[in-house]
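Nucleoside diphosphate kinase, pasting as requested.
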Amino acid sequence: SERTLVLVKPDGVERGLVGEVIGRIERKGLKLVALELREVGEELAKQHYAEHDGKPFFGSLLEFITSGKVLAAVVEGPRAISAFRQLAGGTDPVDKAAPGSIRGDFGLEVQFNLVHGSDSPESAEREIKLWFPEV
Ligand code: ATP
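Structure tokens follow.
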């Protein structure tokens, strides 16, 4: 069994898609280990997206992720990292995410792509420590 960090980003929370995302995670058979609706400060945002520091969209990405409440979750199950990335769909909601995925069904723009899921065991470990130091 494996753990991954999932976020419903401010666009998803604002649009009332928290239940939709949690429902899909549960129906897939993955388990919720921790769940919290929270404000994201500048410091946490920078650490979470450290790998994108220096990219042209880094500033607007930080502005976006700190613009409203985020639902953060630790999700567990067999191959949880890949399983959630399959549920999410590709980064670009139109060009990459298939219909039937969260981004494919509800997203239009690459920045406002509703959810985040860790992309490797190393990222998952780092991100879970960052968002849920107590878990
Ligand atoms: P996440 O890390 O949020 O799960 P991802 O792994 O699919 O997404 P990354 O390439 O790591 O995608 O990009 C992180 C986030 O930065 C994306 O989810 C998106 O919100 C934003 N982003 C990525 N590329 C762009 C871009 N070209 N323009 C604006 N925002 C972008």
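Note for the archive: The mean pLDDT is 98.
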